[in-house]
């Protein structure tokens, strides 16, 4: 136990060397919250990967690009974990450092996970946090030296469901905000994402954790994001492995098809192998999807100073 704690401590220390600050996304009251005995928990699993659960205080960990590289683009990262935990390092901090190499300032979002004990409506808690993160980064663009019209949202697995929800539900933001700041991401990056909550394609844990074990049909449809794509959905980059047994590759395929139908620019990279949760490193191929991402961002002008 001591060894695991020490590993987690050292990992966090390494992260802090690269991250400039951790900021709360809410300045005063956290919306859709209620008093409870829930306490945040961090564990280190076999292999040294850090997992965070029971998030009460949502935050952004800021990774600024070096001044000589910074190009004004920002990306907010939503780690995965089935809406039960956050794979905060290999689907968060590690990716942020890679984005810094591209000149992109990155923000790792520690969002609230659905919890009936601490939230009056657990189904909207993650989206509230994602939309507030976009709002905050856009409002403080000058401080972060970024372009408020170049803010992307990246998500892995269930974090990909959250990102795709934010990318398709922005016209009617959840919660009550008086600033009228847009919560539409300017582009989306979805890595082996949970997209559909349909019986045939869902990741059962993600659906149950967010909307319950017996959700009404209208809520299943609402959170099946392949059905929510419109012409206003942001340009999208998708990555998935065909042999993913946790989140079926058809999740990405359906979202891509919806983008095509609505004429939303989309690029998809499918690997025959890799399974689920590989983060930046699919060990079954010498190809690196982050290089493909860099090419896509460059082609769209998001890496131009």
TrEMBL record:
Keywords: Hydrolase, Signal. Residues 1-19 form the signal peptide. InterPro entries: AB_hydrolase_fold (IPR029058), BD-FAE-like_dom (IPR049492), GDXG_lipolytic_enzyme (IPR050300). Coiled coil: none annotated. One of its GO terms (molecular function) is hydrolase activity. Residues 62-257 form the BD-FAE-like domain. It holds the Pfam family BD-FAE. Transmembrane segments: none annotated. This is Alpha/beta hydrolase. It comes from Hymenobacter telluris.
